[in-house]
Amino acid sequence: MNRSTEQRTPTGETTATTAPTITRRIGRTTYRVNVHFNPNSKETANEKIIRMVKNEAAGKAAGQ
Q1: Is the pTM of this model over 0.70?
Q2: Cα 16–Cα 22–Cα 27 angle in degrees, nearest 5
Q3: CA separation for the pair 35, 45 (Å, rounded)
Q4: Which of 34, 50, 57, 62 is 20 to 30 Å apart from 11, CA to CA?
């Protein structure tokens, strides 16, 4: 399932984009997550996840 959203271009024009949606049902609850990202990001999603895991591990190792 995809959700249509509007996005502004650098010139100020509005364009329609399609944001992917992930739907999961756990028990009697359905979770719908709209996926979005910054097209100008300097790191990939994989790099970001690895960085977050390393930061979390470093915090736990330091006793936080």
Answers
A1: no
A2: 145
A3: 12
A4: 34
H or E stretch at 23: strand 14-26
How far apart are alpha carbons 64 and 43 in whole angstroms?
26
If pLDDT is split at 50, 70 and 90, which confidence band does 49 have? very high
Q: What does the alpha-carbon distance between residue 11 and residue 53 come to, in Å, rounded to a whole number?
A: 37
Closest CA to 6 of 14, 37, 20, 39: 14
In the structure, how many helices (H) and strands (E) does the chain have? 1, 3
Domain ranges of the chain: 1-36
